[in-house]
Amino acid sequence: MKYGTTTDDFALVALKNHDSAFLNPKAGFYGKKVTLEQIKSSPVVASPLRLFDCSYNVNGGAACILTKDRTDIRIAGSGLFTDYLTAWERDEMVSWGATKAASEMAYRAAGIGPEGIDFAELHDAFTPVEIISYEDLG
Q1: Which residues does 50 contact at the CB level (< 8 Å), separation at least 6?
Q2: What pLDDT digit, counting tens, does each position of 30-82 carry?
Q3: Helix (H) or strand (E) run with residue 46 in it
């Protein structure tokens, strides 16, 4: 592959995600152990992606809790940027310009850089997207 990422790298991301789902009672794969061998030998969906590189269709939700009570939580920075939805309109397939722009805005607002982040939880519908997001976030 162009940047040295391999299907073995994809498989390790899938394994990490399935290991987390195994422990999460709200996850579709809760209590269902998936092995690295199962991931690597699963059917190809669209080369180079295998079945376990792709999330299955699930419903989700989000919530924002507003309160007048004081908290120790402070939002140091945020960023928002949009990009083309269709892949063929993007400048490249291995980077998301919106992710880079939004993260740069958030870092600047917070007065930190990527090294100041202790934890990140990324959307991972497809294993390569998670890897691309790590790179784009710095």
Answers
A1: 7, 10, 11, 39, 40, 42, 43, 44
A2: 999 999 999 999 999 999 999 999 988 776 666 666 667 777 777 788 888 88
A3: strand 44-46
Say if residues 11 and 44 touch (Cβ distance below 8 Å).
no
Instruction: Please state whether the predicted TM-score (pTM) of the whole model is above 0.90.
Output: no
Q: Using CB atoms within 10 Å of the CB of residue 77, give its burial: 0 to 12 exposed, 13 to 18 middle, 19+ buried.
A: middle
Structure tokens at 69: 């009570």
Q: Which residues of 11-38 are buried (b: 16+ CB within 10 A; e: fewer)?
A: bebbbebbeebeeeeeeebeeeebeeeb
Domain boundaries, the chain: 1-53, 76-138
